[in-house]
Structure prediction request, 476 residues.
Amino acid sequence: MHVDPEIIRLLAFLVGVIAFAALNAAYLVWLERKEAAHIQRRIGPKEVGPFGLFQPLVDGIKLMTKQLIVPAGVDPVLFKIAPILVMVPAIMSFVTIPFSETLVARNLDLGLLVIFAFASVNVLGLLLGAWGSRNKYAVISAARVVSQNVAYEIPMLVTVVTLVMITGTMNLHNIVMQQQGGFWHWNILNLSASPLMPVAFLIFFVCMLAETNRAPFDMAEAESELVAGAFTEYSGMGFGVFFMGEYANIVIGASVATILFLGGWDCPLGLFPGVHWFLIKMYFLIFTVIWIRWTFPRTTFYGLLNLSWKILIPISFFNLILTSAMLKVF
Amino acid sequence: MIDYLREIISGTWSLFVGLGITIRYFFQPVVTVQYPYQTLPMTPCFRGHIELTKDEETGETKCIVCGMCQKACPSNCITVNGEKREGVKGKVLTEYTLDFTKCSLCGLCVESCPTAAITFSKDYNLAGVRKEAYIFDLKKRLEAKN
Prediction:
């Protein structure tokens, strides 16, 4: 029997991507707890395995053994489909992310567009889950998530459009290839294209925090106000899948930031480029995301929307105009 | 317009200052003490239940059975008894019982003692299932220490 090697390759990538997403979700929880602990000068998980390294596995087993309670009065279809709608797009986005020059499942010409198309489905999943839960806290959370994501999608996409104007391509592989040869070639320091590129990176990063519902923009969960927000009625692995989706989205966000602004798998000094540099940059960004969570308190909802509409959107539009002017002139 | 930009820049800067503070804490050593495995020395001012002190020269208790502590105790939790013995000057302590279930750790007994025969112990690991376990025979405890 003849099997197309391309199918085997895709299957291997599928298994690899799901394993990568699940492993990241598990160990980012561990990283989050450890980092939070050390920022507060505590120890963090330490009992299960060396440095508490088996804690995520034990947590996973606990979540899997718990009953999946479907409360009376929920919409049975939406309630069950919502965690999948959060998880699947996150895994889909991994398809087009190039981890190194050769390590990519499918190098699409519109890779950037694919990622942003799938990333916005995440909000739909949260909205449906919250609406289907028939819980007032969940519905408040859903309303917040939608308005927050509408607000932050705009500066993020305007920044990305600016970047696409500079690179001239949406192919993530080509975007990275244009940044090869040391950190002064990276888009974050591409000052000849636009002197505001570091600011653009900051805007992108802030929007990524808001899009993934991370603190200080964790309006969706807001555990001190809304119980657990959209996840209030979920138990066991339903909750677990939501969480895996959230962490997978953080990994996607950090990966996209790495590719667009930090040169992907390129070494800062032009030596030994490879997948390890991609992972170092990505995990540094994730470390920063967690670091921000344990530094700043949650903003108010008005502060959140004001930041987007009054600061991020005007600045990103100004950057867009400045970049297009500079591209035309030089 | 100037104010708008100034607010953005100073606001962004303050965020970085905040991040700087937390990352400094991140690299500082942890201060948690893992209690059952590690313990801290108790401070000198710690007021545990009372216990008898011993005379450094004789190794015996300094108590002269004057009964001042018994009288000073507002909750009547101290019982002191002594007897006259041949060839010994003063009274000899035969019983010193503290009913810790009633003690409020006010320390009036320690204050009233003329010979500094009682002091606060540093014992804080007190847990039990029977009330009788908290009627301490301080004389026995002192002898057990010797």
Notes: Residues 71-329 of chain A form one domain. Chain A has one domain: 71-329. Chain A has a mean pLDDT of 85. Chain A touches chain B at residues 35, 37-43, 202, 291-292, 294-296, 311, 315 (CB under 8 Å).
